[in-house]
Specification:
Elements (H helix, E strand, L loop, with lengths): L1 H37 L8 H6 L4 H19 L8 H30 L15 H13 L5 H26 L3 H7 L6 E2 L2 H18 L13 E4 L10 E4 L2 E4 L6 E2 L3 H8 L4 H10 L4 H4 L4 H11 L12 H27 L3 H11 L7 H10 L5 H21 L5 H9 L6 H9 L3
Parallel strand pairs: 2-4
Antiparallel strand pairs: 1-5, 3-4
Length: 431
């Protein structure tokens, strides 16, 4: 009799689990079809472009109705009994529903009181600009953060990076003035684009040879290295697109100190490496709807910290190149919030820049214009990298000698593109 009862209980449990799973699959399918039908634009770099794309009141209400319906229906569904992939979809749907309803609330207010012309002077200069900035910050970072806490994070990173730069200056034996004067010497610059290509090819060979030091083996797509002809991208030293790493050299010498960190960030084990792995991961229909830059750019910035493990940064000046660009990224964090949320003037931002960055005044106004034009986007580099380094420290402390850096990287890489908070949950959970 007892065996029959146990069999009955097990049968009922399995049947209930199956129904819950089946019901959730139907719900997820409804979300995917409904979301796709709304044709919601991807996140725009330019806030002016994003605001111009806001739809009329009836279309806004249509979206609100959809997401409120999804929210109400999801409350009736339990995550109990769902598979691992279904639980991931459950979280994604809840997150996207919440973020879209926050966006739509702002859009509804905008539609009711929109100006004739949208100010291009930064989010602080538009109606309800501070609320918009809070939303953009959370959206770009794919995390529930506030401007004040990210501002403080930026100040901390400035001090950390300045410490690395000062250590290298001290090792050089040069005075501060002599050190920065030395950085402009001809020995650090390459004139012939063919020589620049050779330097990048050498770096690729070294890094490919040493990948096993910190990464498990993954199959990645062949990578081409080419000189860019796209002058619209000339403000960056290089970029990655569709299995090609491009370096930018337009009528002026190329800085050798940019070679190692830039290849690591844009190519391997940065964007090319991660995108190759992302493409091989089987993703649900829900996950395929979204792409989260909060960790993608953060990954590229994080792997720069592994340069020595990868056989790069053979000289102190090779390593300095990484910190020279990282101090720019670090200063942009408080500057972005200052200009777009605290209401800084360009003069205040320039003063902040000059106080914290030496030898790079020539790009200051360009970067100030960038953070006003593309609010919060530039923070993804530092925030994402900071999160990964924090997770690594937590696991190193928890696992001690059992910690494996290669497996840690796989915990991140094998997830594909997800919001930062979801990656954190999965990276730190017990295996």
């Amino acid at each position: 009799m007892k065996l029959k009862l146990i069999y009955l209980y097990v049968s009922l449990f399995c049947l209930t689990g199956f129904k819950a799973s089946e019901t959730f699959d139907q719900f997820a399918d409804k979300f995917v079809k409904g979301y796709a039908a709304l044709k919601i634009p991807q996140m725009e770099l330019s806030y002016v472009t994003a605001l111009k794309q806001i739809k009329p009141a009836d279309e806004i209400q249509k979206q609100i109705t959809f997401f409120e319906t999804i929210k109400a229906e999801q409350k009736k569904l339990s995550a109990e009994g769902l598979s691992k992939s279904q639980k991931q979809d459950y979280e994604l749907i809840a997150y996207e529903t919440s973020m879209n309803l926050e966006r739509l609330s702002l859009e509804k207010q905008w539609d009711a009181n929109k100006p004739k012309e949208i100010s291009a002077g930064g989010l602080y200069t538009i109606p309800n600009g501070k609320a918009w900035y809070k939303y953009f910050l959370k959206r770009w970072l794919s995390a529930n953060v506030t401007p004040d806490e990210i501002y403080q994070f930026g100040l901390t990173e400035i001090k950390r990076v300045q410490g690395h730069i000062e250590a290298i200056r001290s090792q050089s034996g040069l005075s501060e003035d002599g050190f920065y004067k030395h950085l402009n010497d001809k020995e650090f610059f390459i004139n012939d684009p063919k020589d620049v290509l050779k330097y990048f090819e050498q770096t690729r060979a070294v890094i490919y040879k040493n990948m096993g030091n910190v990464f498990n083996k993954h199959k990645i797509q062949p990578l081409k290295i080419e000189q860019s002809t796209n002058e619209a991208m000339a403000q960056a030293p290089g970029y990655y697109d569709n299995n090609v790493f491009y370096y930018n050299q337009f009528n002026k010498p190329y800085n050798k100190r940019q070679v190692d960190w830039l290849f690591i960030h844009e190519a391997v084990p940065g964007h090319h490496y991660k995108s190759s792995i992302n493409a091989a991961i089987k993703q649900s229909k829900v996950q395929q709807l979204f792409y989260y830059l909060g960790l993608e750019e953060g990954w590229g910035a994080y792997v720069e910290e592994l340069g020595k493990d990868l056989g790069a940064y053979k000289t102190r000046y090779d390593e300095l190149g990484k910190w020279e660009w990282d101090i720019v990224r670090s200063v942009r964090v408080p500057m972005d919030i200052g200009l777009n949320y605290y209401g800084w003037t360009d003069e205040q931002a320039l003063s902040f820049w000059k106080k914290n960055i030496k030898n790079q005044d020539d790009i200051a106004m360009r970067e100030i214009a960038r953070v006003k034009r593309w609010p919060a986007q530039c923070i993804t580099y530092k925030y994402g990298a900071g999160q990964i380094m924090e997770w690594k420290q937590i696991l190193q402390k928890k696992e001690g000698t059992k910690f494996n850096i290669r497996n840690f990287h796989d915990r991140i890489l094998n997830l594909g593109s997800l919001p930062v908070f979801m990656v954190k949950e999965r990276v730190l959970e017990a295996e």
